[in-house]
Design a protein that fits this description.
mainly beta
């Protein structure tokens, strides 16, 4: 009757616009083997990386290549932008938020100078990894499809 009072969970959203991939297809063993946790990846077409869930930024790497979210659901989520991007020492990454910020799914967190990094041959595949608090297999029907940043790809 009062549907507007009902809180709707958006689940987990895409961190960037691009093509969704199974985590096992990522060109990095630490992620593709699920050693760090289960998740999914997106081959980005956009420059802005957004929060994949409502919660708090628990960690923001000084290099800007990764950040962690503690979701309201309790899930601990790592968003890692690119393969071996820590070696860039922050080049091409610009923080739009800071550690401790409360965020909603879809809020901008990092801006990437995508064109510059692609010219350097950097693989910008962006991973969303559940490092804790999410105890079921990641199952989504987005693999191989285009997803939009901030749109739900995994139900909570």
């Amino acid at each position: 009757m009062f549907g507007f009072l009902k809180k709707e969970s958006r689940g987990i959203t895409a961190p960037v616009t691009g093509i969704c991939r199974n985590i096992t297809e990522v060109n990095d063993k630490a992620f593709s083997s699920k050693a760090m946790g289960d998740g999914f990846a997106v081959e980005p077409e956009s420059d802005t990386v957004v929060s994949p869930a409502d919660g708090e930024i628990a960690m923001l790497f000084p290099t800007g290549h990764a950040f962690g979210i503690t979701a309201k659901s309790g899930a601990e989520i790592l968003v890692h932008i690119g393969i071996d991007t820590v070696s860039l020492n922050g080049e091409g990454f610009h923080a739009l938020a800071k550690q401790g910020d409360k965020v909603k799914a879809g809020d901008p967190v990092i801006r990437v100078d995508r064109e510059k990094l692609l010219e350097k041959g950097v693989d910008l595949t962006t991973m969303v990894i559940f490092t804790g608090g999410y105890d079921r297999p990641v199952e989504t029907d987005c693999y191989g499809k285009r997803v939009e940043a901030g749109k739900t790809v995994l139900r909570g």
